[in-house]
What does this fold into?
Amino acid sequence: MVRPRRRDRHGRGLRGRLVPPGVPLYRSRAQQFDDMVLEAVARLEPRWETELSSVEFAVQEVPDADTIGEDEGVPLARIVSGSPDTSDPGNPATGPRIVLYRRPLMARAEDEDELSELIFDVVVEEFAEILGVDPDVIDPGYGEMLARGDDPRRPGDYPPGSPSGQIAS
It folds into this structure.
């Protein structure tokens, strides 16, 4: 009969969690990034709730190799168009999807506040493209980072040969 192990081999007991669940360190960087995306969408919901109801949001670590052009920079997000066809029950209709790329966005922000604003601006840009309107229509405060000169997407901020921070459509 095998007895359950109650202590490690040094007699100090089993190791518990290092950080309690209520502390911010408990969440991984990916989970914190997902929360920032949800916060950006929540900022748009009061005004655009009906339009947002058909849009899906997704987070991917990095863009697929087939989405990056040879002479373009690394995209920060992209739009995957939905399928409006409802005739095939095996392939139901879906709305458009905005896919944000976590690592390129994180690489362009210096701190958490800047990352949050960058995520919001990218969500506004992609959502505006889906609706076919100017980003200023979606969010009248759009581009505040641009106006202050804090835009992390400026191509001049990057050394030659590095991604230029272009946003893919």
Notes: The chain has a mean pLDDT of 78. The two ends are 62 Å apart (CA to CA). The beta strands are 56-60, 77-80, 97-101. The longest helix spans residues 29-52.
